[in-house]
Hints:
Layout: E1 2-7, H1 13-28, E2 33-38, H2 42-45, E3 51-54, E4 68-71, H3 78-89
Parallel strand pairs: 1-2, 1-3, 3-4
Helix pairs in contact: 1-3
Amino acid sequence: MKIIAVCGMGIGTSVLLKMNAEKVLKLMGIEATVDAADISSAKAAAANAQIVLTTPELVFKLDGLNAEIIEIDHVFDLTEIRQKLEKALL
């Protein structure tokens, strides 16, 4: 499984989302590749991804992707990330 974490520049929020998603996936026992990307390269990066994690303000810019787009309101909230990933994966 491939997951892309997206933010505006690809070096801040997306990296935090990537790290926290990896923590959550490990706790869930799910193997996945999680990459960070900026909004301008997100469509190419997500071409073969199943899930895209991003903040609410960027969702509209990711319209048209084949991957499921999951809005994460609080990037440090592992419970939120887990609940939303569980809903998408299980």
